[in-house]
Amino acid sequence: MARFLLACVAVVLLAGCSSSRPSVPTIEPARTYELAGFEPLGVVRAGPVKLAFTIRQPSGEPLTRYRTGAGPHTRVHLIIVRRDLSVIVHRHPQIGPRGRIEQMLTLPEPGPYRVLVDAYPLRGRNFQLHQDVRVGGAYRPRPLPPFRQTVTADGYRVTLAAPKRLRAVEPAFMTATVTDPQGRPAEFKPYFGALAHAIFFRGGSLDYFHTHVCGPATPGCTSVLGGTRVVGRATKPGKAQVGVLLPVAGTWRLFLQFETGGRVVTAPFTLQVR
């Protein structure tokens, strides 16, 4: 009887193997936002360059409706950095017909650049896309300098008081003291919806994060990472509290940008995050 049952099972299994296979649905790749029609393609010369692109939605249609209003969390932040983090360009381009974005800017030195697009659609959370551009010529990467408490940029002296230890995903605050070329406290003017922008890029991987310094006339500056929020404040001339909230450990470059005296000043600092 046992041999008979085993033989029956074998017949059933063989019959099953010889039957037609069940249909398996084809799983398409996830549909995401992407950059379409990006320019320039290929190597460009150092100097003026026109960047152009459209953000394509998962539906395939161009993204044309962006968040507007007060504060820096609107439209598109266009941030370009050289791979060694020695050059940064920050723009807020206009949105053209059918969502086409065009921006003239200057890439001053040879080397590879990361074009980062930080977009704020009308509905949903912001997201980042990127594309690389190469400027022709001999690329000589510069090593990131160690942390220096004080840097001078365009005649402005910026001193940063930072915690002894910065840790990933833990909010922290630094105090920036800024004096003008005559040694007076700098007057911060609203710049792209904030009194100052703290733009962070991680060395090597070019991970990115962005916080802001807010004032009474620049609301809506809070930055969010997961469920953690951080916002910097400026309550008097020449003093700014800068929020730090970085996703991973490593060596990061902070570009502190503010408008004062009719110009935009960029003060770079190197930070170690554990």
CATH homology superfamily of the largest domain: Immunoglobulins
CATH topology of the largest domain: Immunoglobulin-like
Task: Name the helix and strand elements from N-terminus to C-terminus, one letter apiece.
Answer: HEEEEEEEEEEEEEEEEEEE
Order of strands across the main sheet: 2-8-7-4-5
CATH hierarchy: architecture of the largest domain = Sandwich
Helical fraction: under 10%
Keywords summarizing the entry:
single chain, disordered N terminus, 5-stranded mixed sheet, 274 residues
Describe this structure in words.
The protein has one helix spanning 2-18, and strands spanning 34-39, 43-44, 47-56, 76-82, 88-91, 100-107, 111-119, 127-135, 150-153, 156-161, 172-179, 196-202, 208-214, 223-225, 228-230, 232-233, 239-244, 250-260, 263-273. With 274 residues, it is mainly β. The chain has two domains: 34-135, Immunoglobulin-like (Sandwich); 150-273, Sandwich (Immunoglobulin-like), CATH 2.60.40. The strands form five sheets. The protein has a five-stranded mixed β-sheet, with no helix packed on it. A five-stranded mixed β-sheet has the order 16-13-12-18-19, with no helix packed on it.
Topology of this protein?
Blueprint: H1 2-18, E1 34-39, E2 43-44, E3 47-56, E4 76-82, E5 88-91, E6 100-107, E7 111-119, E8 127-135, E9 150-153, E10 156-161, E11 172-179, E12 196-202, E13 208-214, E14 223-225, E15 228-230, E16 232-233, E17 239-244, E18 250-260, E19 263-273
Parallel strand pairs: 2-8, 13-16
Antiparallel strand pairs: 1-3, 3-6, 4-5, 4-7, 7-8, 9-10, 10-11, 11-17, 12-13, 12-18, 14-15, 18-19
